[in-house]
Structures are given as C-alpha cells and as structure tokens.
From TrEMBL, chain B:
It comes from the Bacteria. Keywords: 4Fe-4S, Iron, Iron-sulfur, Metal-binding, Repeat. It is found in: Cell envelope. The keyword Repeat applies. Its cofactor is [4Fe-4S] cluster. InterPro entries: 4Fe4S_Fe-S-bd (IPR017896), 4Fe4S_Fe_S_CS (IPR017900), FDH_Electron_Transfer_Unit (IPR051555), Formate_DH_Fe-S_su (IPR014603). This is 4Fe-4S dicluster domain-containing protein. GO terms for biological process: cellular respiration; formate oxidation. The lineage of its organism: Bacteria, Bacillati, Actinomycetota, Actinomycetes, Streptosporangiales. [4Fe-4S] cluster 1 binds at residues 19, 22, 25, 195. Transmembrane segments: none annotated. GO terms for cellular component: cell envelope. GO terms for molecular function: 4 iron, 4 sulfur cluster binding; metal ion binding. Residues 10-40, 108-139, 140-169 form the 4Fe-4S ferredoxin-type domain.
Length: 355, 294
C-alpha cells in the first residue's frame, strides 16, 4: 500500500472495486436525476459523507450465486408463473390459441429455472436435501415447496394440452397452476431481499411488485409473440400494464432505497437497468401502436420479454455491486446509529427509564 | 434445570486491547479443524494477508495502522515513579527512523483484532438455510452440518458480518463451529487455547459479559476512552452475539458492520408484501380478461 496512514479511513485495496480515499455518499432521498460515470475527486452536488472501513474491503462476503443461474432463475420463475395465470384466463375465456403457447412457455420456463437452481448448488446431487425441512424463515425452503406444488400442475397442464389426454384433469391443472403461479412469480422477491445485501434488502417493500409486474410483462410479451392477434387482447393488456408497472415500481424502489439504490444507477447494473427500462417502454409502446400487426406485436412482445430479463439481471448485478462496496453497508448503519443517539439525547432524562 | 440438562450458552470474548497479532488463533484453528489453505497472498495491508473471514479462514486477525498516539496503549505497569518515559522499542512509525521531530514516540498505533463468527442469538444464516444443515447446538452456537449442506449459498449474503462462505473446491458452506467437537468434551476452542495473551477468552456468555463490562470500565479508568464493547448487547439487531469484542475504534475500522440487523427481522413484512403483489398479479390478470372480447 502506497499510503499506509490511510488504513481504516476508507482506503482502497489495490485492484478492488471500492473507491480509494474518502468516498462520497448521497443523503437518503436526495438523489436527483441520472448522473454520468463520476471519477474520483470530481465535484459532487452534495457534500461528501466520510466513512471508514477496513482497508476499503467489503463488510459482506460476496454473493456466490452465478448471475446467469440465479438472475435467470428470477426471470424464468416470473415468466412461468405469470404465463400460467394468463393461460388459465385464456382457457376460461375460450382463447385456446393463447392458452396453448403459454402453457408450453410455463413448463419450459419452470423446467429451465429449476435446472438453473440445481446447477447453481455447490452440491447439485444433494438437491433433495431441500425437501428435508419446511421452513417459513427460509424463502428458499418455501420456494422449493411452492415449486413442488406448482411444477407438476404446470407440467400436467402442458402435457394434457399437447396430447389431448384427460381434458378435465388438464383443465383443473391449468386452473391450479394459474392460482399458484403468482406465488412462483413473487416469492423470489423475499428470496433475494431476505439477505444483508443493501441493494436488495432495502427494497423489500417494492421488490415483490417489481417482480409481479415484470412477470406480467414477460408473460404478456410471450402471448404477443406466440398467439394470433384475434386472441391476444388480454395478453396485450397484461403486457402493457405489466411493462408500465415494471418501469414505475422499479424506479420508485430505486429512489426509496436511499443510498442503497445508488448501484442501480452505476456501472453494469446501471447499464442493465437503463436498457431494461428502455426495452420495456419500447415494447409497451409497440404493443399499443402495433396492435393490428402480427409482426409488430410479436416484436414488441419479444422486447418485453427481453426487458423483463434485463430487469432481473440489473437487480442481481446491483446486489453484487452493493455487497462489494463497504460504503453501502457502513454509511446507512452509521446514520441509523447517529439518528438513534440523537433521539436518545432529545428524550428528557428519566422519562423512559421505567418503561 | 430440567431433566434434559441444557448447558449454559458458550461464547468468546475477544479483548482486542491485548491482542498482539501473533495469529496463533488462525493457525490453531486451521490445525484443529483441518481448514484448507486460504491462498498464499500478499495483500499489502499491514500484517494481514488472510484478508477476511471465509470458508477457509475461521479466525482472521485484522491489522490497522493509525496515526494516533500510542500513549494510551502503554500499560505503564512496573515503571517507577519519576523515571523517564518509556524506552523506544523501535515500534513502526510513518516516518523513516530519525526523521521525526524531537524524538519520543511518534503518533502511531497498531490495532489488532481476531475476528470470528459471532454465533448470533438471531442468526440469519441459520434462518435462511433451506436444508436444515445449519443448526443451533445445545451450547447456543451455530454450526453447519457438512453432510447435509447442499451448497445453495443462501447463508453467504444473509450473514450481516460476512462470516460464512462457500468453499469453491468443495461446494459447501463452512464457518467457525466454536470447536463443537472440543467444547462437548469440556475443552476450550483451539483459538482460545492457543492465544498467548488471553485476548480470546472462552466461557459462559453471561460470565463473559460481566468480565467484558469490568474490563471496559478498567480501561476507561486508565484513560483509554476509545475502548468500547461490540456485540455484547442482547438488545442489538442480532439479539446479541455469542462472540463479542472489546474494540479501540469504531467497528467499521475493523471491517465489522456498525449496526448489523438480522435480515429475517423483516421477513414477515416481506411475505406480506409478496402476498399482496401476488394478489395484484392475479387481480390484474382477471381484469385483463374481463375486458371486451378481442
């Protein structure tokens, strides 16, 4: 280290992502519009908040999940769950050309997401150990059981659709998958928020709504890709509302998170998040304007599916970035302590002692 | 006590004011627990080359060099009154030898601290483990069962202290067990046994808390105003740690979170929000289909 007297003062580790020296931190809820990539030492609009760290190293251990596996898992789970909801609606309202591809989508997506989940395990052959316990304190345990309920239903819905066997059973499975689908699409929000990762945990109130709307956009987009326009009306409505909801809720979430929302604007996570919003908005506009054209509809649908995937990738990457920088762990916690101390100082002496 | 006798809660009190940075704890831990090599790296961060707690580092000695007076780290014990100040022991300084003005001791202090798993009262790693591999022992410590762990990696980002980690060559999660195999036999953990200055003290958590309180009072009386306890408070965000510390600076200087909170504290609210979002998705889809037929 060239500057040893700075250790413990937010000094950076060579080759580490954390910014060397005093790092600025924006006050909660005071983050303005998008800012470009800022270099060290550049002026900021708000005063720098000093924070201290151990040689600039992160407090948290880095997320060991692969972005492709678990980011993909978040996206595919949403696509599957919402596809089943739309497939059930299509089945109940007599739109077979919309129901069929969505049932296939649901089965393919849930198979892919389960494969991704197992692939990401350090010991994939021990996947079944997940079924040893039923543990409400672990979203992954609950998710496993949700998948165990939903997967066979989605599978039965798709297989009966393809083969034409047991139509009544297929109908029941379709409705069952449609009712459990929303859980598959949203439980992944508690899954990632129930961690110490600042960019995930701090958004736990909004994240389920981001995931639900993103799932609706993806499934609706899939409906636009696969179904003829005579039957894809509800998918179009779901897609447009989902995409607008996705952009609105994720923007709201990033702003409400305070400092922990900063990674969503920076680096790779920022690029992914911006691309996701652009694709989702473009897809929504295309889906509305191109509602008489099969080709434009399909193209818009594809943009929405891609937008949803990028939203999840951006959220995953923001989590990684927020875990890698001690700033996002230390500064909010330090502020919390200071606020608590200030509150205690304001309280009149002796008032709170007897409880 | 009932028939199924439950031993008192065991833990560590790590008094960093007497840590000399010998790393005997790191070595003893590796030896006893057969923890593999954690990388032969030169990290250029004082004498710390293991860097952080991880799957292969269950005790980690932090070294912090600060431009602050050494004075209040001087015990003053055994010095006759009226004699000259302490002899220069050639302690490290920021200036080359002889460059400092006026001799005496430069403003330099060296903080050392042996970090370890906190064995939280409310342990996030244990809460989120989907296989039940992590469990709470009869000593109120938190241990991973390596024959159950399937390496899902959920405990890693759940830990607010960055303790538990997945061993890449092996695929499973590992961390300090508070030497579960030793304490069951009435032995103290390997690190505490090896510590030459009793910086690492093992015992019943209640008694250690008392001892820590007295130690901090003694240090304050001796003028070490920067001494403070970390993790001993049962009212904190993790319900108090089974392994707590006496520090001489802010926790974040040692790489510890200043106000850790167990993430599962907010889980009931997370489930409620997720349930609401699922209901909105279902209702929204119903509305989409309720519109005119097209």
């Amino acid at each position: 280290m060239s500057n040893p007297d700075r250790t413990g003062e937010g000094a950076g580790e060579a080759g580490h992502e954390a910014i060397t020296g005093s790092v600025d931190a924006l006050p909660e809820g005071r983050r303005g519009g998008r800012r470009g990539r800022r270099r060290r030492g550049e002026e900021t609009r708000v005063p720098d908040a000093e924070f201290r760290s151990y040689h600039g190293r992160p407090v948290l251990n880095q997320i060991v999940w692969e972005a492709r596996d678990i980011g993909g898992y978040l996206f595919l789970g949403g696509l599957a769950g919402a596809s089943s909801v739309l497939a059930a609606g299509a089945q109940l309202t007599g739109r077979p050309a919309l129901a069929r591809p969505l049932k296939y989508t649901a089965l393919a997506a849930i198979s892919g997401s389960t494969a991704a989940l197992i692939h990401d395990l350090g010991r994939p052959e021990r996947f079944l150990n997940m079924l040893r316990v039923f543990k409400p304190t672990s979203p992954m345990s609950m998710g496993t059981w949700i998948l165990m309920c939903y997967g066979p239903l989605a599978g039965a819905a798709a297989v009966t659709e393809a083969t034409g066997w047991f139509p009544r059973l297929g109908r029941a499975a379709t409705i069952g998958a449609g009712l459990t689908g929303p859980l598959v699409a949203t439980y992944t929000a508690p899954l990632i928020c129930d961690t110490a990762v600042p960019a995930w945990h701090e958004g736990y109130r909004q994240m389920p709504f981001v995931f639900a709307s993103s799932a609706a956009a993806a499934a609706g987009g899939m409906g636009l890709v696969a179904a003829p326009i005579e039957q894809s009306g509800p998918a179009r409505r779901a897609a447009v509302c989902g995409a607008l909801g996705e952009v609105a809720t994720s923007t709201f979430m990033e702003r409400r998170m305070g400092l922990a929302g900063e990674p969503y604007e920076r680096g790779r996570a920022g690029a992914l998040t911006r691309a996701a919003k652009a694709l989702s908005l473009a897809g929504a506009v295309g889906a509305v304007l191109g509602r008489r054209s099969r080709a434009v509809s399909a193209l818009s649908g594809a943009a929405l599916v891609a937008g949803s995937a990028l939203t999840r990738a951006g959220i995953f990457q923001a989590g990684v970035q927020s875990a890698a920088d001690p700033k996002y762990t230390v500064v909010p916690q330090r502020r919390r302590l200071e606020e608590r101390a200030a509150e205690e100082a304001r309280e009149p002496v002796g008032a709170g002692t007897s409880g | 006590m009932t028939t199924d006798e439950r031993p008192p809660r065991k833990g560590f009190f790590t008094d960093t004011s007497v840590c000399i940075g010998c790393k005997a704890c790191e070595v003893a831990c590796k030896e006893w627990n057969s923890v593999p090599e954690d990388g032969l790296d030169f990290l250029a961060s004082s004498f710390d080359n293991s860097g952080r707690l991880s799957a292969d580092t269950w005790r980690h000695v932090a070294f912090i060099e600060q431009r602050a007076p050494l004075g209040h780290q001087d015990s003053g014990v055994g010095r006759p009154e009226g004699t000259a100040g302490p002899v220069d022991l050639g302690m490290p300084a920021f200036e080359p030898p002889g460059a400092g003005e006026g001799g005496g001791q430069g403003d330099f202090r060296w903080l050392m601290s042996s970090d370890v798993c906190k064995h939280c009262t409310h342990a996030a790693c244990l809460d989120v483990c989907p296989t039940g591999a992590l469990f709470r022992t009869e000593f109120d410590t938190v241990v991973v069962q390596d024959d159950i762990c399937n390496g899902c990696g959920y405990c890693v980002p759940a830990c607010p202290y960055g303790v538990i980690d997945r061993r890449e060559v092996d695929g499973r999660a590992w961390k300090c067990t508070l030497c579960y195999d030793r304490i069951g036999d009435g032995l103290e953990p390997a690190c505490a046994k090896a510590c030459p200055t009793d910086s690492i003290q093992f015992g019943d958590v209640d008694e250690l808390r008392e001892r820590a309180k007295r130690r901090v009072e003694d240090l304050h009386e001796a003028g070490v105003s920067s001494a403070r306890l970390y993790g001993e408070d049962p009212e904190d965000g993790v319900g108090g740690a089974g392994a707590f510390f006496l520090l001489l600076d802010e926790p974040e200087v040692y790489g510890l979170p200043p106000d850790p909170v167990v993430t599962t504290r907010d889980l009931p609210s997370m489930w409620r929000h997720a349930g609401a979002a699922a209901a909105v998705l279902l209702a929204g889809a119903a509305v989409a289909f309720a519109g005119r037929r097209s």
